[in-house]
Every structure is written in structure tokens, then in C-alpha cells.
Amino acid sequence: MLASGNILIIMEALSVFIGASGSIIAENGGIIKDPKTGALLIFDQAKKKAEEAYDYLRRKYHVEKVQRSEYRTTEVAIKRTVDVSIIYRESQLFGLEAIDTGFAIHIKDPNIGKGKALQKVAELMKINVKKIAAIGDSENDIDMLKVSGFGIAVGNADEKTKKVADLVTKGSYGQGVLEAVNKLLGIC
Asked: What distance in Å separates the CA atoms of residue 30 and residue 34, rounded to the nearest whole number?
């Protein structure tokens, strides 16, 4: 299965492209799609608050949404043009949290996360979440790595993510994922 901070349509295309057949977790856990039934679980009530926070931030700072923001249904993703600590602090005024993926800063409901989504997918699959290994590289992956049975950070992961991982690969990006999969399969 794939889990990302990215929007659903990109994750669906990527899933088809690489031949993944499992569930899709998009928007940092805000959307879960079951590919067998096509069913979606969407935390759509969260977007309104995130938009309010974004409007507030836009009046105070030079912030701008990332491309394809119109397709986001549960959060707001903004370009990294402002110090992340400011966005962290200001988001809390709205009862929200901000997470930095290295690509964008996501403003979202604190009840949404990849870890919670992974637990929900495991429940739907009727398996223990501890039977799932997770691979990540940034702050938005930390809760997922913690709830999984075996958390792996790729070599280019940020330090916070590496600290919670059970394994940190030597390889970065795709090479790190390949190394992780090979280790999980017992190939190396």
C-alpha cells in the first residue's frame, strides 16, 4: 500500500504505475481508499478550519499554496516560504497542527495522521498493525513508523524520522526503499 502527503489522484496514478494493489493513504491520512471496493474514507470536515488558518496566515505572512491545491480535500499544503516554526505556532491558534514534509508545510487536523490511517487500514484488512512494515523519510511519517510493526527511514530522512525508525537504510530515496524491501524479504 502507499501512504503519502500527496493528493489522492497522484497517489492513484502512482499506484497503477508501480503496480501496487493495496489501500492508498493520501493527504497525510486524511483520505483512505480501498482499491477493491473503491470506498473512500475522507475526513472532509477538517478542510474548512485549515482554510481559515491559511487565510489568516496569508494576511500576516507571504504564504502560498502548493500546486494542485484545489484537489486537496482535508488539509492545506503551503510552499516553504516562511519559517516552519511560525507555521507550527500559528496553526495551533486554530487547534490545528503543521507538519513539514520537506516539500511543503501541511496544515491539518491533529486527529489526522498516517499512523491513524494505517491503523484503520489494518483494521479493515483484519490484521494487526504490528504485522505491517512502514517506510518513510519525513516528519509526516513519524506516527506511521511508530504504530507499524517495523519502521524504516531511508538514508535521506530527516533526523526526527531517523530517531523513531527501527532501521535506517544506507541508501537514499528510491535506493533506500529498494534496500528496505530487500531487507524485509531477506534478500540482503
From this structure: 14
Asked if residue 69 has pLDDT above 80, the reply is no
Beta pairing partners, 136: 153
User: Buried (b) or exposed (e) across 139-151, using 16+ Cβ within 10 A?
Assistant: bbbbbbbebbebb
Would you give the end-to-end CA distance of the chain in angstroms?
22
Q: Could you tell me the fold of the domain covering 46-108?
A: Hypothetical Protein Ta0175; Chain: A, domain 2 (3.90.1070)
Backbone φ and ψ of 71, nearest 5° = -90, -5
Q: In the CATH hierarchy, which fold is given to the domain comprising 128-188? A: Rossmann fold (3.40.50)
**Residue carrying C-alpha cell 499554496:** 65
Report the C-alpha dihedral over residues 140, 39, 180, 169, rounded to 10 degrees: -10
pLDDT at residue 22 tops 90: yes
Q: Report how far residue 142's alpha carbon sits from residue 82's, in angstroms, rounded to the nearest whole number.
A: 23
Domain boundaries, the chain: 1-43, 46-108, 128-188
Grade residue 188 by pLDDT with cuts at 50, 70 and 90.
Answer: low
Per residue in 110-162, pLDDT (tens digit) is 999 999 999 999 999 999 999 999 999 999 999 999 999 999 999 999 999 99
